[in-house]
């Protein structure tokens, strides 16, 4: 299977992994966002907790969770390899560099945005995922109240700030990442690409907005 | 003065080449592997020759001074390439292309060579298309053609305004393939500075690695010079900055005759000079004359008002404009050959009708065809029966943009003027040199084993080249002529083993190059190389340009001699020999240009007639057309180098058996 | 001299590939707005030769009409300077203002090592073409050119890709020094033509392998290359290169 290793060690193959894992992580975001939006039902977290418990106990979701982590790790690891390689390809930097003249700042800052996201993700997991995992192991998952956890975390203004910054990083990361993934997959057509680009922008802004509203709404007790 | 033999095979013109191809000696494949060929230059001629010879199995080395073979100046050719395909069903044929080329060259080219060129022209298009050259196509998917000057058929194939680029990249990709296969060794950023002759045959070259400055010796059973023309002798020309005569000149000084050096082509449609800082001139493709109409004001006062900025040319009424080409040459109109169009522009400007600040520019105006030719066409397609003027302009604008967009953009970039709204200003500029190393029918110079291809030789264009024929000739020589004709020589060389580059001839040649370089540095004068180049250019442009006369040429010769003295006493070459040193490169080239300049003027002085690009004011008709002297000058002047400033003249008689020569008329 | 602008230049000077370089200040006076950027360098070089202190500045240039791809100056943080769709030689001083300060550097990429001052070695591009950027047809084997009709749209797209002049501005502009636009232009030109079909798979595989081996970075789709390309080669070519590569890897018998 020489050709497979050849492909995935080439720059294009590695980019393909970035694109596929990226799009996969985007589908996760959609599920995550939809589920979390249940808090906006403002029913004291009843539906939300039910959903959370379903996700925590369904065996299929458990498998998907593993795949998700593999996807995430691949996305991060490949990004790291590619970035290091890209840095090597220009050992002497320009004294004067006018990137804004030819490209969007966030398209040139995917590494930084991604790193910020990764830091945020660690914080985010420590807030919620570890608690849920512990409950799964202890067998207390059925009585685990994720909604309450949310309320507690978002009482702190610092946490709200962290989440907002995380969500902004996410938005910009997606704004480039969404359409970039299609380009990497080779999908570029004068009839469809304008749509993909606008859809990507709308999607990035919308999903970030919804996520941003969660800590804000909870912190200011807009939802009880 | 002696007569020289061009080794044209006997027989009918139509079958000569075919018969010759079938009888020329062959080299068998196993012997080809032991034969080494040095190719200098990587333009259309060099790339196509090197590729074709490598495909045949020869061991090939290619040298170019640019950083990549893809940058050779063939790349800048805009308009197109001729071929006698008759795809347009407009009556074209091999004979017509042959006839047009001989006539266009004012009956100063060899019949046999030109007919061969016309015969292989079709193969070139096939070869180019097969190697991926994206020529312009019609909606049906077939190739598109347009007209060029000096012809009445549409036989020019093109790729927007970038035909030369596309053809060169096609040839270059073939060359890169052979490099990848190991059949060609490429030496980019190398300049040939000497040919090496052993026992009367050319056996290699001395080249300078332009990055390290080191001199290298390279053996070859044969050497092909595909090094382009010498138009840069004028300093200002449409040639690339580094185009030079050095390789050809070194060969000339080692025994190769130089033919017809005074035949230079002044292209009628270039962007006028804007100031003394000007480093080169930019061509606007001849294809623009398909749709652009050339004019100046009828009245001098209007011309003056335009020059002073008091009158906008768009406001000048139709009846106050002088479309002088249409007036003088109704049959060909704006599509007369280049020499004719150039002289007509000069005539109007000299008479005071020039339209820019310097008085050296005429208009090339698209407004009429934009509106009434293309605008109307589009309106008809759109079923608009009574289009407004604004609509016509808008529609025509789109068509013009598709046809010539990149040229219009380039014009705007250089002049800051929008040619869609204002007529272009143009003026003639040096563009191509028909003269070059004398070669026989096999493309071999007077030195056995030393060949010259493409613009570097003199053979196919006579005294004036028709548009879209340079690309044709370069590729014909490289793809379809040299692979056959080189066999005539190499078949007798199969027993010659590679000669060591320690041979005394190589050692001595290298020593000569080394001493010339040292001499250049030793002058330690006060003036940069460009200073001399500009002076030389002005002397030649003023005296050996579009119009020449005895007094001017005599004066120019003595001025050039003095300039040569001054150069070798006062030039300042900075930097070091063993280093990347563009100033040193330029110095060597200008030294050779100065010597060539003298020969050009001498040749122009000796040729007591006018023909094509060589216009002697003392030889013209009453209407101001070139007046040939077929009795005395139906020949090629081939100059043999004796010592600096001293040449012997030889002549090759031109025989016309298939064309009745006449005074060229485009009226 | 004809002009009245004064320009402050900061130019990268580097003796050769092994030595360290630095930016050096030069003031050029009486610059005419009609001058090209390179003609301003000619004027400066003439002065440097006359003064005899500094060697003239080395830079690549040849045709000076925007087609050979030799000229390659990185001007105020952008390849070929501030204007779109032009090479350095076609950049005119009317695009600058009196007393502007202009920083001029060579292309920066591990794959394009500096030779001297502003001149770099771009032979990596030649090696990429040698690895597959051609149609393997020997001279004399071609059929009649009109035996193979090609849809005008395909021919036009192929031409648009083939317009690449190999100057390397795409690499210079890209934050990763990626050569994807260059490679994709050649792959696209030949993939769009039926003549290119027989070698379609091997071509893209070999060219991508050579591109990687030369030390260019990878593409992050910022679009900087397209924005700076003097011939405005489109990003759709990069998408096509990606497609061609996956197709060749996954579905052809090559690789």
List keywords for this structure.
heterotrimer; A: mainly alpha; 9 helices; B: alpha+beta; Flavocytochrome C3, Chain A, domain 1; Methane Monooxygenase Hydroxylase, Chain G, domain 1; five-stranded mixed β-sheet; 18 helices; 21 strands; 15% strand; globular
The termini of chain C sit apart by 61 Å
The name of the CATH superfamily of the domain at 270-429 in chain B reads Succinate dehydrogenase/fumarate reductase flavoprotein, catalytic domain
Largest interface: B-C, 84 and 81 residues
Low-confidence stretches of chain C: none
Would you tell me the structural class of the helices and strands of chain C?
Answer: alpha+beta
Mean pLDDT of chain C: 96
Radius of gyration of chain C: 21 Å
**Highest CATH level, the class of the domain at 270-429 in chain B:** Alpha Beta
Fourth CATH level, the homologous superfamily of the largest domain in chain C: Alpha-helical ferredoxin
Proportion of residues in helical segments of chain B: 25-40%
Helix content of chain C: 25-40%
Main β sheet profile of chain C:
5 strands, mixed
Order of helical and strand elements of chain C: EEHEEEEEHHHHHHH
Query: What is the C-alpha radius of gyration of chain B, as a whole number of Å?
Result: 25 Å
CATH architecture classification name of the domain at 270-429 in chain B: Alpha-Beta Complex
At CATH level 3, the topology of the largest domain in chain C is Fumarate Reductase Iron-sulfur Protein, Chain B, domain 2
CATH fold description of the domain at 270-429 in chain B: Flavocytochrome C3, Chain A, domain 1
What is the annotated CATH architecture of the largest domain in chain C? Answer: Orthogonal Bundle
Number of helices of chain B: 18
């Amino acid at each position: 299977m020489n050709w497979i290793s050849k492909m995935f060690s080439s720059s294009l193959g590695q980019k393909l992994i970035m694109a596929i894992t990226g799009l996969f992580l985007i589908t996760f975001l959609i599920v995550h966002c939809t589920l979390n939006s249940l808090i906006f039902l403002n029913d004291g977290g009843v539906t939300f907790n039910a959903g959370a418990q379903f996700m925590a106990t369904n065996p299929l979701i458990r498998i998907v969770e593993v795949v998700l982590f593999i996807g995430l790790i691949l996305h991060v690891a490949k990004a790291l390899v590619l970035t290091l390689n890209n840095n090597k390809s220009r050992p002497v930097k320009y004294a004067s560099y006018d990137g804004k003249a030819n490209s969007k700042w966030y398209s040139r800052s995917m590494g930084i945005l991604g790193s910020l996201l990764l830091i945020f993700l660690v914080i985010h997991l420590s807030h919620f995922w570890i608690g849920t995992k512990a409950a799964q192991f202890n067998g207390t998952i059925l009585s685990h109240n994720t909604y309450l956890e949310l309320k507690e975390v978002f009482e702190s203004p610092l946490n709200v700030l962290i989440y907002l910054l995380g969500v902004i990083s996410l938005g910009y990361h997606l704004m480039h990442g969404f359409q970039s993934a299609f380009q990497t997959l080779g999908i570029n057509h004068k009839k469809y690409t304008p749509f993909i680009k606008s859809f990507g922008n709308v999607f990035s802004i919308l999903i970030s907005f919804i996520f941003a509203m969660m800590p804000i709404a909870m912190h200011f007790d807009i939802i009880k | 003065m002696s007569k020289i033999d061009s080794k044209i095979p006997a027989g009918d013109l139509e079958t000569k080449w075919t018969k010759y191809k079938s009888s020329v000696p062959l080299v068998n494949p196993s012997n080809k592997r032991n034969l080494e060929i040095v190719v200098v230059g990587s333009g259309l001629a060099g790339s196509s020759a090197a590729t074709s010879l490598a495909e045949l199995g020869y061991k090939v080395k290619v040298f170019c001074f640019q950083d990549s073979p893809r940058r050779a100046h063939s790349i800048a050719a805009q308009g197109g390439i001729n071929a006698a395909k008759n795809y347009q069903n407009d009556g074209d044929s091999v004979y017509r292309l042959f006839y047009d080329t001989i006539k266009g060259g004012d009956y100063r080219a060899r019949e046999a060579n030109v007919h061969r060129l016309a015969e292989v022209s079709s193969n070139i298009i096939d070869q180019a298309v097969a190697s991926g050259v994206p020529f312009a196509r019609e909606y049906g998917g077939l190739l598109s053609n347009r007209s060029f000057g000096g012809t009445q058929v549409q036989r020019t194939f093109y790729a927007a305004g970038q035909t030369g680029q596309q053809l060169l990249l096609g040839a270059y990709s073939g060359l890169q393939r052979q490099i990848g296969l190991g059949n060609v060794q490429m030496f980019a950023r190398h300049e040939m500075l000497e040919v090496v002759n052993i026992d009367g045959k050319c056996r290699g070259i001395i080249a300078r690695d332009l990055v390290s400055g080191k001199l290298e010796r390279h053996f070859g059973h044969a050497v092909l010079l595909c090094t382009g023309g010498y138009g840069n002798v004028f300093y200002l020309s449409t040639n690339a900055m580094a185009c030079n005569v050095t390789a050809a000149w070194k060969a000339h000084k080692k025994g190769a005759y130089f033919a017809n050096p005074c035949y230079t082509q002044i292209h009628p449609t270039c962007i006028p000079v804007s100031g003394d800082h000007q480093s080169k001139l930019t061509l606007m493709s001849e294809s623009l004359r398909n749709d652009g109409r050339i004019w100046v004001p009828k009245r001098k006062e209007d011309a003056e008002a335009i020059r002073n900025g008091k009158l906008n040319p768009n406001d000048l009424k139709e009846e106050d404009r002088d479309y002088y080409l249409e007036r003088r040459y109704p049959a060909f109109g704006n599509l007369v050959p280049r020499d004719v169009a150039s002289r007509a522009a000069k005539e109007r400007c000299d008479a005071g009708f020039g339209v820019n600040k310097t008085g050296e520019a005429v208009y090339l105006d698209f407004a009429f065809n934009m509106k009434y030719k293309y605008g109307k066409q589009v309106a008809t397609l759109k079923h608009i029966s009574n289009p407004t003027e604004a609509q016509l302009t808008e529609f025509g604008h789109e068509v013009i943009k598709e046809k010539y967009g990149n040229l219009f953009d380039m014009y705007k970039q250089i002049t800051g003027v929008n040619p869609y709204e204002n007529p272009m200003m143009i003026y003639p500029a040096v563009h191509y040199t028909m003269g070059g190393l004398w070669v026989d029918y096999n493309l071999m110079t007077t030195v056995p084993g030393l060949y010259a291809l493409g613009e570097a030789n003199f053979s196919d264009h006579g005294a004036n080249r028709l548009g879209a024929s340079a690309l044709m000739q370069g590729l014909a020589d490289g793809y379809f002529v040299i692979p056959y004709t080189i066999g005539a020589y190499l078949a007798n060389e199969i027993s010659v083993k590679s000669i060591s580059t320690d041979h005394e001839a190589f050692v001595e040649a290298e020593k000569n190059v080394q001493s010339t370089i040292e001499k250049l540095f030793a002058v330690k004068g006060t003036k940069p190389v460009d200073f001399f180049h500009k002076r030389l250019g002005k002397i030649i442009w003023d005296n050996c340009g579009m119009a020449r006369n005895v007094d001017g040429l005599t004066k120019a010769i003595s001025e050039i001699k003095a300039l040569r003295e001054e150069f070798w006493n006062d030039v300042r070459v900075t930097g070091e020999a063993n280093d990347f040193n563009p100033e040193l490169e330029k110095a060597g080239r200008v030294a050779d240009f100065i010597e060539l300049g003298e020969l050009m003027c001498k040749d122009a002085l000796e040729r007591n007639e006018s023909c094509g690009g060589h216009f002697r004011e003392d030889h013209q008709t009453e209407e101001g057309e070139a007046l040939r002297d077929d009795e005395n000058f139906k020949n090629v002047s081939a100059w043999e180098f004796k010592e600096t400033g001293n040449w012997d003249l030889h002549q090759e008689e031109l025989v016309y058996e298939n064309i009745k020569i006449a005074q060229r008329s485009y009226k | 001299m004809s002009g009245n602008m004064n320009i402050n230049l900061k130019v990268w000077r580097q003796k050769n590939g092994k030595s360290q370089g630095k930016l050096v200040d030069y003031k050029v006076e009486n610059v005419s707005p009609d001058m090209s950027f390179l003609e301003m360098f000619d004027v400066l070089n003439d002065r440097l030769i006359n003064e005899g202190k500094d060697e003239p500045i080395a830079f690549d240039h040849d045709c000076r009409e925007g087609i050979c791809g030799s000229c390659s100056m990185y001007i105020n943080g952008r390849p070929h300077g501030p204007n779109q769709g032009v090479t350095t030689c076609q950049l005119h001083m009317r695009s600058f203002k009196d007393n502007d300060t202009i920083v001029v550097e060579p292309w920066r990429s591990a794959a394009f090592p500096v030779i001297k001052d502003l001149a770099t070695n771009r032979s990596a591009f030649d090696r990429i073409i040698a690895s597959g950027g051609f149609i393997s047809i020997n001279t004399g084997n071609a059929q009649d050119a009109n035996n193979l009709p090609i849809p005008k749209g395909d021919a036009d797209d192929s031409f648009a890709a083939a317009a690449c002049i190999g100057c390397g501005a795409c690499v210079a502009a890209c934050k990763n020094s990626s050569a994807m636009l260059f490679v994709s232009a050649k792959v696209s030109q030949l993939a769009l033509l039926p003549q290119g079909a027989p070698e379609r798979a091997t071509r893209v595989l070999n060219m991508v392998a050579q591109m990687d081996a030369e030390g260019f970075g990878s593409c992050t789709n910022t679009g900087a290359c397209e924005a700076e390309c003097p011939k405005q080669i489109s990003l759709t070519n990069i998408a096509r290169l990606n497609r061609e590569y996956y197709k060749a890897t996954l579905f052809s018998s090559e690789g």
